[in-house]
Amino acid sequence: xxxxxxxxxxxxxxxxxxxxxxxxxxxxxxxxxxxxxxxxxxxxxxxxxxxxxxxxxxxxxxxxxxxxxxxxxxxxxxxxxxxxxxxxxxxxxxxxxxxxxxxxxxxxxxxxxxxxxxxxxxxxxxxxxxxxxxxxxxxxxxxxxxxxxxxxxxxxxxxxxxxxxxxxxxxxxxxxxxxxxxxxxxxxxxxx
Length: 192
Prior knowledge:
With 192 residues, this protein is of the alpha+beta class. The protein has helices at residues 9-22, 43-50, 62-67, 90-100, and strands spanning 3-4, 24-25, 28-29, 32-36, 56-58, 71-74, 80-84, 104-105, 126-127, 139-142, 157-161, 166-177, 181-188.
């Protein structure tokens, strides 16, 4: 399993509540956090494709998740999964944090390739959990979490993420959902 970014109980709460705001299961909000499984590709390839924007990652095993009693649900596109939670309280959220194990730096094998560049400073245009993706394989977030929602229109390039990790994205679409306000999906561009 892989999850990017340095997590805390408070950060997991925000991410779980965002997931519940956007998705439901059997008519109830789906409280959960996003992870990726190393399936059908080497870990290095998954890290390069999905996690190059992160400074730190977690590499728990599926067995660790099971030992802590979490349901792991295949969601969105393979290899995306959601770790289902019961409630967003400190005790419940401490369990997935413990199951993640220690955060480590992104592997050295992900050094810059010839012609790539990297910037350490950025200003986030719209808050997003870069671990989240929908059934299309695109990242999703909520329009009301943008610094300036008027600027978030299809075709626009934005910086999405948080203080730990961000990526340059192109807004693909905006959707209006009465139960979740408005959300958008964005395709990730390679990290700078």
